[in-house]
Write a structure and sequence with these properties.
It is a single chain. 45% of the residues lie in helices and 11% in strands. The protein has seven helices and six strands, in the order ααααβαβαββαββ. The chain has helices at 3-10, 14-25, 32-60, 91-107, 118-128, 145-160, 194-205; strands at 111-112, 135-141, 164-170, 185-187, 208-209, 229-233. The strands form two sheets. Strands 3-2-6-4 form a four-stranded mixed beta sheet, with helices on one face. It has a two-stranded parallel ribbon with strand order 1-5. α6 (145-160) links the parallel β2 and β3 (164-170). α5 (118-128) packs across α6. The N and C termini lie far apart (130 Å).
Length: 234
């Protein structure tokens, strides 16, 4: 049964007023047939009106829409910056190993002065040629055949590079008041001169160990004043 009709007409007093007026008070002095038919007509009419109103109200109201709840916020905000790729495993260790290998190559000990290869002789002549006209004294100490080969190669290299070469071969050396290393070395009266420093760099650049030794033995006094560079081979 229509709820609008129950609320608005029956409970609102329409039927109560009609039935009280007709059945109890009978203000119009109707007989029972008139009371019953008129009361039924009022009830049917009220039900018709109530049903019509309820139907119009139902059709006018929009259907309820389902609301999808928003996902809970996690408190994390996606950054607009591009994501960086994750670091590759072992990448840092590989770089560290490469750096260590490079450092080992830089700090590897130079080879002692020995017989020169053809490539080394060519490079030495080219680099030392930049100082053509300078003077060098080559001193061979001892009678070792291999050392003699190195001595002759040095003489050839400096001559082909345009240097003024002075040589001496000494069997036994007795040195007093001067450095006399047990290996071949480079020295000069002025070890800080650009020529001496450059010669040292040329040999070191080819991996040849020719220590620069100050205040070292530069040959017997009979040879006179030392030239720009002195190399003692032993």
């Amino acid at each position: 049964m229509s709820t609008v009709w129950l609320e608005r007409f029956v409970l609102g007093g329409v039927c109560v007023a009609v039935f009280v007026s007709l059945a109890v008070i009978n203000v119009w002095k109707f007989d029972w047939t008139q009371r019953i038919t008129l009361g039924g007509a009022i009830l049917l009419f009220s039900y018709f009106v109530g049903h019509t109103v309820e139907r119009q109200r139902y059709s006018a109201s929009p259907p309820s829409s389902l609301t999808t709840p928003a996902p809970p916020s996690t408190g994390q905000h996606k950054s607009d910056a591009p994501e960086q790729p994750p670091p590759v495993a072992g990448g840092r260790s590989k770089q560290h190993s490469a750096a260590l290998r490079a450092k080992a190559r830089r700090t590897s000990p130079l080879q002692p002065l020995a017989s020169f290869s053809d490539g080394q002789r060519v490079l030495l002549k080219q680099k030392l040629g930049a100082f053509a006209g300078s003077g060098v004294r080559l001193i061979l100490v001892g009678g070792d055949p291999q050392t003699g080969i190195v001595f002759e190669q040095l003489e050839e290299i400096f001559k082909d590079a345009g240097w003024s070469v002075q040589t001496a071969r000494i069997g036994i050396v007795s040195v007093v008041g001067a450095n006399f290393p047990s290996v071949s070395y480079l020295t000069s009266a002025n070890v800080a001169s650009p020529t001496v420093r450059s010669v040292f760099s040329v040999f070191a650049g080819l991996g040849i160990d020719l220590p620069l030794t100050p205040d070292a033995f530069m040959g017997p006094g009979s040879m006179g004043a030392a030239p720009d560079v002195v190399i003692v081979v032993r």
